Amino acid sequence: MGEIRDFCERAWQGDLAETNVHPGQVIVGFEEFAPGLGFMSAFSNALVLDTADGLVFIDTSSFFYAEQFFEGVRAWSPKRVHTAVYTHGHVDHVFGLMRFEAEAQERGWPTTHVIAHEACPARFDRYRLTNGYNGVINARQFGFERPVFPKRYRYPDETVRTDRVLDVGGVRVELRHDRGETDDHLWAWLPERRAIYTGDLFIWASPNCGNPQKVQRYPREWAAGLRKMEALGAELLFPGHGPPIIGRERVSRALRDSAELLETICQQTLEMMNAGARLGDILHDVQIPAALLERPYLRPVYDDPRFIVRNLWRLYGGWYDGNPAHLLPARERDLAQTLAGLCGGAQVLAQHAESLCRQGQVELACELVEFAWQADADDGPVREIRAAIYRERAANETSLMAKAIFAAAARDCESSGD
């Protein structure tokens, strides 16, 4: 059994100790799963099909693993890359073609034909427009020392609106479109192989459908796409992140459980919205099934399923959260200084937050210490207490998203004291 296949079994059994399965914790390598079917495990994955007319890529991995991807593929096959499909335009899926296209130019081969959803070019345009912002949030989310985000993209040669059937060298690839983590998402069904390549519609973690720093996601459509996949009776599932799933029963269960998690969050949120509840109440009243989050492929290690509630509200209800004071609010600093003045000063407010944190009321502690810091960001003791509370908050969260934002808040206080 190869290293990646062994990882598949260990991941399914959930015996990876405290690391669990995480989209960012991967084995990097290329492995053949069947004759003519190669899989690149990285951040992110890619599937390679060997056909009579050349290779077909489903996703191309990221800039960080482009060299390993090239070397792995070339150790497996010398054929030119005929077609490449972007499941979506996220940068970790679309930067693995550079070496192959340089090679094609050197050898006089035809250029690779790149296919993506019709919304993908607009995504690339938006990334160029908001390059600085995306660099900042990626630095915060992944702990980079400085903002990093690409400015140039390989745009697709052909775009797909709904579905598209490819026949390359006698190999059939059925592309399907369902909105989910993105509006431009495609997934692939390989009927002869009984295999699905899901892209980021399955990532070995609670669906990345609420990311607080990214644009709109689509949980209802995502769940519907997972149900479509489940109905196909696939025997192999190749995800956008994490190891493949082998066996029809396992594939079905993983897809079914993922859809169920999204469906229950959607149902509860919409019921409360339709009853006139405020966003703040819905955030605390939606019940996330603990049994589903215990599945090794649904653990909230990347996104937090509670964030999905906010994304649903944004999608169906706009940005007004139901609190009239938030419609045209006072400046945060003015409110914070007023509250601090009523309490006896920013340090008093911060010390009360510290006491709440020791009592385990960390959510309230964060609210109060944020007011204290807004009231007097130059106060050394206030900065120290804020940093300590957010370090505590980060340590107690499970999702990378929450951990990263809370840790960044702690670092802001620590660096501002230098």
- CATH superfamily of the largest domain, please? Metallo-beta-lactamase domain
Number of helices: 15
CATH architecture classification of the largest domain: 4-Layer Sandwich
Could you please say which CATH topology of the largest domain applies here?
A: Metallo-beta-lactamase, Chain A
Q: How much β-strand is present in the residues?
A: 15-25%
Backbone CA Rg: 23 Å
Q: What low-confidence regions span 5 or more consecutive residues with pLDDT below 50? A: none
DSSP strand count:
13
As laid out across the biggest beta sheet, the strand order is 1-2-3-4-5-6-7
Structural class: alpha/beta
> Given the C-alpha coordinates, what overall shape results?
elongated
Task: Indicate the CATH class of the largest domain.
Answer: Alpha Beta
